[in-house]
Amino acid sequence: MEASADVLVVDDDPTVSEVVAAYLRRCGHRVRLAADGPSAVASAHLKRPDLIVLDLMLPGFDGFEVYRRIRRLGPVPVIMLTARGEEHDRILGLELGADDYVTKPFSPRELSLRANSVLRRARHNAAPPDQAPDIRRVGELEVDVTGHQATRAGEPLSLTGREFDLLAFLLAHPGQAFTRAELMQLVWGWDYGDQSTVTVHVRRLREKIEQDPAEPRLLVTVWGVGYRLDSPEAQEALEPPAPAGHGEPGQRAQRGQADVSTDHLPGSPSRPSTNPARPGSPSGAHQ
Questions:
Q1: How crowded is residue 271: how many other Cβ atoms within 10 Å of its Cβ?
Q2: DSSP-derived 3-state class of residue 180
Q3: Helices 108-125 and 161-172 sit at what angle, rounded to 10 degrees?
Q4: Alpha carbons 117 and 175: distance in angstroms, whole number
Q5: What single DSSP character describes residue 188?
Q6: What 3-state DSSP class applies to 51?
Q7: Residue 241 burial (C-beta neighbours within 10 Å; 0-12, 13-18, 19+)
Q8: What is the pTM of this model?
Q9: Spatial separation of the C-alpha atoms in residues 8 and 38, rounded to whole Å
Q10: Is-contact 146 182, C-beta < 8 A?
């Protein structure tokens, strides 16, 4: 059983709230309930919860505004509930830093399992003060996992919790390609779910770590597989030699024609080799 946590469930439907609360209590968690935006914020101010299960459609003000106000108190993991399936709602929730989202109607058991997964990851990230530093670097990127800080060329990166987890994981496995399903399991801790969540986070992360997000050189797409984090040294090794008599502008033009980006991947591909230089593996960095 998971260690007990203080969970704030915010939903204006009392039936949903009570069912969710019952499943969470069965997992050993303490549960508080709020039925509107103002009462949810007031409850969080009295005591910051370990996790928020937050409906988007609320009286007073919506779940997005609730989370914006509660987040000022400090980092709080959140699972957003929505009866709306539009992609822009999910993307906005992820951009605000939501750890997960569940679309109604949902299975209370699935929600409780996802809550436990989010809590485990949050506790793992809260490292004890005496823990040895875990610093990961690739090129200009550096992630201090222990201190939960990330920089690019010495400049701090403003990352959501999931973006940080994704970058830290990829920095621990440079040059290794992962499918979206594998990233969901290894970074999110989900055995199943909407894989577009991974796509959204990759796109957002590229906007923060790439010089040109439209032509990524670090977090690259591997055709028919998934994503890979390349070091600048690996990129240079994969660059084709310049044609005789052509300078750097010609090289840039050649690369521009070869680099085509896509995030739409076929389902259930086979796992690639982790060595980009091995014959038969995907050639170069496919963005």
A1: 12
A2: helix
A3: 70
A4: 27
A5: I
A6: strand
A7: exposed
A8: 0.54
A9: 13
A10: no
Peptide bond preceding 105 in cis form (omega within 30 of 0) = yes
Q: Tally the C-alpha atoms within 13 A of residue 155's C-alpha that lie toward its C-beta.
A: 5
CB atoms within 10 A of CB 52: 28
Beta bridge partners of 52: 8, 78
Q: Who contacts 236 (Cβ-Cβ below 8 Å, separation ≥6)? A: none
Q: What residue type is assigned to position 181 of the chain?
A: A
Opening angle at CA 215, ends 135 and 207, nearest 5: 50
Query: Mind listing the pLDDT tens digit of every residue in the chain (287 residues)?
Result: 457 899 999 999 999 999 999 999 999 999 999 999 999 999 999 999 999 999 988 999 888 899 889 988 887 889 988 776 566 666 677 667 778 878 888 888 888 888 888 888 777 655 555 556 678 888 889 888 877 789 988 888 988 878 888 999 999 999 999 999 999 888 887 777 678 888 888 998 999 999 999 999 999 999 899 999 998 765 555 555 555 554 444 444 443 333 333 344 334 344 444 444 433 433 334 44
- Cβ contact 152:141 at 8 Å: yes
